[in-house]
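Good day; I would like, with your permission, to put a structural problem before you. What I wish to show you is a protein chain and, alongside it, a tokenised description of its three-dimensional fold. Please examine both parts with care and let me know of anything in them that strikes you as inconsistent. Thank you for your consideration; the sequence and its tokens are set out here:

***
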Amino acid sequence: MKKNLLRSIGKVSLIVTGLITGAASKIFWLYQPEN
């Protein structure tokens, strides 16, 4: 039971981290001064 909970929490945190990283890179790319 606890192992499954930890595994699901790990999956969720991985997905959240991926979303945050993607959003941050997108924002950085959008607000980057054009060369």
Q: What stands out?
A: DSSP finds one helix and no strands in the chain. The chain has a mean pLDDT of 91.
